[in-house]
Amino acid sequence: MAARESQGLQIAVILLVLLVAALGITTYVFYAANDKSKLDAEAANQRAQEEQGRSRTYLAERNELKVMIGHSEETPMDEIQEAFGDDMKTFVADEGAQAPTVQNYRQVPGVMQASVIKLEKQLADSLRANTALRAEKVALENTYQTKLSEAETSRDNALAAQAEAEKKMADDRKSLEAAQAKLQDEKVKLQGTIAQTIDGSKKQVDAANKERDQAMDLVEAFKVSLKEKEPKVGDVPDGRIIWVNQKEDNTWINLGTSDLLRPQMTFSVFEKGEVNIALATVKGKIEVTRVNGSNEAEARILEEDVTNPIMPGDQIFTPIWSPGVAQKFAIVGMIDLDGDGEDDTDDLRNLIQSSGGEVAAWVDAEGNINGELTPEVRYLIDGKTPTEKTAAAVLTAYSQMREMARQNGVELIQVSRLQERMGWQSTERLVRLGRTSRLEELEAEAERERDFKPRRPMSAYDN
After folding, report:
1. Which of 195, 203, 209, 445 has a CA 20 to 30 Å removed from the CA of 307?
2. What sections of the sequence does the record tag as coiled-coil (predicted)?
3. More confident residue, 240 or 431
4. What is the number of structural domains in the chain?
């Protein structure tokens, strides 16, 4: 009995030892796994902190880059990409290309430098062309001097021939008178001889005078041609463009009420810095629509070259008006402003008066000269020359007006040249249609055009 109890106790002790050993092993295993989990968690936390640091660095660098290219830190990327595309199209788009070849900001300075070099080359080419034109002008002046010398020589020869013919006629007359005293019986025959001699001498004189007049007409024609190419007194810019709204086709100029500027006055536009208006090329035309103040007015663009648009600083000029001064004009010949074959003298008078000028003299349809042509008149506006079918009174008035202009030193100007230099344009307009044009807008615009009132002279009481 005692042996069995001892054996049972041994078995219990053995089982307890095994249980303790198993518990120790299990505890060690779980403890080791817990240490490994802690180490893994600490490593993962370290990596997360490093990633957060890199993320913060990346965000700071990205925000700094946004500011460097001109945006705020809050600007979204799609807006930045859209602005980048617009900048590339604006500054580095190739001519005729659908999209720019440059795709980053670092290349923009190089592309713009190339554009500057190209523009400088174009400027140099323009300067060379200007030098060639000046040389051509010198050649024309030399030709004029040569022709003038030839005309003067022809005139001197004609005068010498006339003097010689008159001397010969006087000698013949003395000889005939002496022969008449001695030979009374041959009086009839000698008188006939004298008559024939005088008639022949007169024909020679008439021929010489005609040749002289033709030479003088040629000289006058050359003088007129040369004067049209030289700067005229008063041919200086009247003002300048101070701002342009290309979208609305509007401009603002530095003239106003203090200059006696009126609405509906038209001007030609020339390049900034142009000093010789008489030889300059017109780059556009404008019409005053509203006078805003003493030195400011608004105008609409009538005509311009899209390759050389009107820009701030460009100069404006009209030959029929100067700031604060009304220029005087005279009109002669058949005036056809719109090419319809009808005389538009009254329309031209209204146009000059509405633009601040004054018509001092003109010829009406019956050939009457109205007003007086004095040295104060700046130009005699020359229309089409009357033909043989024109009334005699009109022909006479035409010749008289031109002769009065010559005697008073008044310069001739063709009506087409005057229209160009004063910036006048026909009221017919070209309507450009775009993708956003709508029929109802075009019809409304046409209705407003039908209600447009023709230009008329403004009185001193008009605002």
Report:
1. 445
2. 116-218
3. 240
4. 3
- The pLDDT tens digits of the residues spanning 122-151 come to 999 999 999 999 999 999 989 988 989 888
Residue 383 is part of a domain; what is its CATH number?
Answer: 3.40.50.10190
Q: Are 320 and 352 in contact (CB under 8 A)?
A: yes
Structural contact between residues 389 and 400, judged by C-beta atoms closer than 8 angstroms:
no
User: Per DSSP, what are the bridge partners of residue 330?
Assistant: 361, 380
Strands 328-332, 325-326: pairing is unpaired
Same domain, 264 and 339: no
* Residue pLDDT, tens place only, 306-331: 899 999 999 998 887 778 777 888 99
Work out the number of other CB atoms within 10 angstroms of the CB of residue 155: 17
Last residue of one domain, picked from the residues 195, 228, 261: 228
Q: Please tell me whether residues 276 and 352 are part of one structural domain.
A: no
364-414 pLDDT, tens digit each: 888 888 988 888 888 899 988 887 777 888 888 888 889 999 998 888 888
Task: State how far the Cα of 382 lies from the Cα of 371, in Å rounded to an integer.
Answer: 16
Compute the C-alpha angle 134/309/279, nearest 5°: 20
Q: DSSP readout, 88-121?
A: HHHHHPPTT-SS-S--SGGGHHHHHHHHHHHHHH
Which CATH number goes with the domain that contains 289? 2.40.10
77: helix, coil or strand? helix
